[in-house]
Amino acid sequence: xxxxxxxxxxxxxxxxxxxxxxxxxxxxxxxxxxxxxxxxxxxxxxxxxxxxxxxxxxxxxxxxxxxxxxxxxxxxxxxxxxxxxxxxxxxxxxxxxxxxxxxxxxxxxxxxxxxxxxxxxxxxxxxxxxxxxxxxxxxxxxxxxxxxxxxxxxxxxxxxxxxxxxxxxxxxxxxxxxxxxxxxxxxxxxxxxxxxxxxxxxxxxxxxxxxxxxxxxxxxxxxxxxxxxxxxxxxxxxxxxxxxxxxxxxxxxxxxxxxxxxxxxxxxxxxxxxxxxxxxxxxxxxxxxxxxxxxxxxxxxxxxxxxxxxxxxxxxxxxxxxxxxxxxxxxxxxxxxxxxxxxxxxxxxxxxxxxxxxxxxxxxxxxxxxxxxxxxxxxxxxxxxxxxxxxxxxxxxxxxxxxxxxxxxxxxxxxxxxxxxxxxxxxxxxxxxxxxxxxxxxxxxxxxxxxxxxxxxxxxxxxxxxxxxxxxxxxxxxxxxxxxxxxxxxxxxxxxxxxxxxxxxxxxxxxxxxxxxxxxxxxxxxxxxxxxxxxxxxxxxxxxxxxxxxxxxxxxxxxxxxxxxxxxxxxxxxxxxxxxxxxxxxxxxxxxxxxxxxxxxxxxxxxxxxxxxxxxxxxxxxxxxxxxxxxxxxxxxxxxxxxxxxxxxxxxxxxxxxxxxxxxxxxxxxxxxxxxxxxxxxxxxxxxxxxxxxxxxxxxxxxxxxxxxxxxxxxxxxxxxxxxxxxxxxxxxxxxxxxxxxxxxxxxxxxxxxxxxxxxxxxxxxxxxxxxxxxxxxxxxxxxxxxxxxxxxxxxxxxxxxxxxxxxxxxxxxxxxxxxxxxxxxxxxxxxxxxxxxxxxxxxxxxxxxxxxxxxxxxxxxxxxxxxxxxxxxxxxxxxxxxxxxxxxxxxxxxxxxxxxxxxxxxxxxxxxxxxxxxxxxxxxxxxxxxxxxxxxxxxxxxxxxxxxxxxxxxxxxxxxxxxxxxxxxxxxxxxxxxxxxxx
Length: 984
What we know:
By secondary structure, this protein is of the alpha+beta class. The strands form 10 sheets. Strands 3, 25, 26, 27, 28, 29 and 30 form a 7-stranded mixed beta sheet that branches. Strands 17, 18, 19, 22, 23 and 24 form a 6-stranded mixed beta sheet that branches. The longest helix is centred in the first third of the chain and has 36 residues, at 12-47.
């Protein structure tokens, strides 16, 4: 039986059903896309970043259209030429010729095929291309770096902004030509211009011309690609030791690329000639020449040069490239000589008690509270309600109170959407009742409420300073309500004016949101849009939503900055700060590149990963340039996003400010009260310290041999991470630590981010790195280099020494029992008295799901001496001698802040004058009055008690500075041996 010719025909009814189904499916897909776009547009309007939305949208649309037209048009034109130039008569190779059936089917639907294929291909290509909007906008707004590359003498902006765009254009040109070629090839075959029957087949003249011209254009594009590849060699990763053009790249690959460019042009001309000459030998010879030259020049010659010239003399051959790599890497990562200061440090191990006691900048500010450990303690003692919570990792910031800088563990009492009880999780409670958190909580980082003595169980907790709706502190928080935070995941519907307040505020009061955050949801169109977007019909039908209601969404500070500034890489750790009475989330933003010539590439996500759990991970992208050019703030009450340019000289930031003008405020607009809370960002510091471990070396030979490289040590305190089977090392790197310290040459203590570095694959300390967060010296990196002829113990060795000390081992055994366990705090390294002091707090925690850590002991190491006591002062006395810890803030003292009702006052009255003792008694009395008023719900009395407590604590601080009453002195023969002060 003769097979049917062509494709089966559908009935009219079937065609109508298919068309209707396709239209309905398309409508659903389009409606979903438009709905998400509309919700995003409303959000960008709320935060005042509408220009970001429109610029990105129009750029994407323009790219979509341009590439769709380019690819779809080239395919369509190729189809059109093949169709118009088809042979009039095509022999049929028998009744079973499959080509004739396809030809008949195509010719029967020539309009559908002629328009459908280019349209489908164009849509796919346009969809893929529109995501490259950043590359195009940087090209259009490129600015010079003012620095030229060492090989071609071109400004770095060529590699950063223009070369990626040229490569992108060439790649899409390849796709267009290749698509046109293969579509034309298939079309000529179907239409009969190419026939495989007979000896060697047959090729019509129109088919030969069209395919040869397309092949020639393809080869010509290869020539352009070869030419651009010469510049890309400056980003070579051929060598594991360094990045950038190697000796082989410069002396073999680069000349080969130039020669291949010329050969490609010659071969393209050969294809063009072959299109009009009935001799296919010319294009074939050109193709063979192209392949052979690519193999010989592009692969064989570089391999031979590398094998017989470079490998026998690597240092001599690669010295120039290594020098370029060192200089470029320092420039690209902000590690130039004006930003990094190297100092040789003695690292002695025999400092005296007098030297330690004389330290007035570092010793009194040694941090004992670990923000990575104490989150459960904050939660249990300051949570107040089950639907409140603190972050999984607390933050550290500094405040200057009464003229004294003090670092604090800080956190905000956020609404925890996941913390609602089962009977609180109905839609009304989740979205209209429990809408916000309450309060800012801080604790001085260098002290606790009291020392945890054996068996007491009450000490070792932070001295909380709370600012919330019912409690005030020296931080003067005017608006303690938290509507935007890291733990809040649900949207909230707020602000129904003219009716009774509905939002939970305190047990005895409700609240109505009055901030400018949120999108109006009073009109029916927006209610319908958000009901569809959230899949929640209650938004549409609830009577609790009024004409003045607003919906608050995208409430995570980091997410808000990422969405408002999609061109930034955002730091993983936002932190809260009280600025002019308001709680602001501060978020660091980075500008990055991956094509800075000769600079070393870093894997961002892997480089910043350390032993701290629960941190959001940065994208694991490859970068070789980074700047902390932008500081962003997010108001915790109204969600306002503000961007500040803190590095206005950054060319990448300049380019982005050209794309989005007037969105990033200038550095001069940063208020001093805000600048005082800028921290040197952890993620940037982690990237820089990993590079400093290698790029402190200046000599190419030493760099190549790697014998003076350093390492970021593993975290010896983290007993939860595993050990790598490949290296035998612990997998968690030691994180950097924020401390208040005063280095040699500094005239005051400053807030710094610090890290220890060890020798390459060694445990001995090689250097100590610090980055300043002080406004006057912000960003200055100090590197203390230890002598190579001595061996100073590193963090891992000190930890081993700690736990091999009999006293420590015995006490840890007592702490770790069936009912409790010991928890290691952060092991901080500090330069003190010409040596390195290690301090590690030890916490205990009951083995219970509601248990929380409390400071039990303090470990101190200096040289080969170990101190292990309930207080830091006692531990220092044990290491250096009595009196060494006299500058330490005693447990129970506020550590530079003001005593607040987080814990009962615990002044040490021994040896104080009468005024201080009276003030202490008044503090205890005021505290008892406050607690009774709190129980009775008497807010007026609570306020007065807090005022009395504050007045008494100030009188106590003033009075205790006065000398105590003089006591009769014993004769010299009977004078006792000096001992440490009571309680440290």
